[in-house]
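Weekly puzzle thread! Below is a chain. First person to post its structure in token form gets bragging rights.
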Amino acid sequence: MLISPAYAQDAAGGGLALVTQLAPLILIFAVFYFLLIRPQQKKQKEHREMLKQLKRGDRVLTAGGIIAKVTTVKEGVDEVEVEIAPNVRVSVLRQTIGDVLKPIAANDAAAKG
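Winning reply:
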């Protein structure tokens, strides 16, 4: 017989081999968690807090790109009434408000112009 039989090698370092196989997967998960998952959760939490703190008179940017002024905030309801033009008021869902715009101070407006 020209071919000798093949025998499986004995797994002498069984526990160590398992750790070396799982270490790259654990490392990849840790990188994804700290670079992707955690910052996204933090951003979502900040957005929820911003929506809770909406008040009358805030200038907001909706998801549709409309800049509006908050006229009525209804507690316990997901709707906010905003004015998009003089005497034009619409109700929008809180979740569609993307950002609260900061007012431009008079000093900043003069410096830009």
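Puzzle host: Confirmed. Bonus trivia for everyone else. The chain has two domains: 12-53, 55-113.
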